[in-house]
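Ticket #4471: complex job returned nothing on first submit. Input attached below:
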Amino acid sequence: MRRFCSLGSGSTGNATLVETVDGARTTRLLIDCGFTQRELEARLARVGLDTSRLDALFITHEHGDHIGCALGVARRHRVPLWMSRGTWRALGAPELDDGLLHFARDGEAIDIGTLRLAPYTVPHDAAEPLQLCVDDGRARLGVLTDAGSLTTHLLAALQRCDALLLECNHDRAMLAASSYPASLKARVGGRLGHLANDSAAEVLAACRHDGLRHVVAAHLSQQNNQPALAAAALATVLGTAADDVVIANARSGFGWLDLH
Ligand SMILES: [Zn+2]
Ligand SMILES: [Zn+2]
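Support reply: We reran it on our side without changes. The output follows.
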């Protein structure tokens, strides 16, 4: 995978764009599509693209900050759409034209152009959530957002990545002190909720290796986290300065990061 960027990340919407080039062929995959179609077009325009230039959409789960306008984009621009069967059912089993809808499953590789996707199951309060690694034979990106706890399965899936995009949803002390009702605090901080900064650091500690080039902190809560706290948690594991950690923010994500 030659490069990747985010169009925005957080509870208001997520979309990660990956791109690879093989000879004359460019393959572009959008992971999650959590915006209105107008907003998505505006964000794609910032990186010089539009929805007609996408080769596939992969939706991790049915929550609104991930599904967004995915069905509309698939229908309007005939972009193939991948999701788990459970996600599709949770969305009301929407109909799409022949060849547009594809089901993803944990452990089954998906080839899209020169990209190979490896979806894996995560613990989150959705029907059948999948996160994924993307590989083009030269570089590998591991994506992990919307996971409430660590499993040996997800840690195994994220090994040997050249880049890691990890959810740093909240700082535990900020969540505990926040004005959220107790039930919401329990949901966000629970086993099927969202990853705290220290849990993301644990993932990084288990998956870091000498070939790891980029680490991104993503899906930060605007109420219960601060970019500096997320960056510091990950930088401590890397043994580097906090500004070596890229922050994916809600408004503009982050710009292209090259992998080869
Ligand atoms: Zn989310
Ligand atoms: Zn979610």
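The longest helix spans residues 227-238. Closing as resolved unless it happens again.
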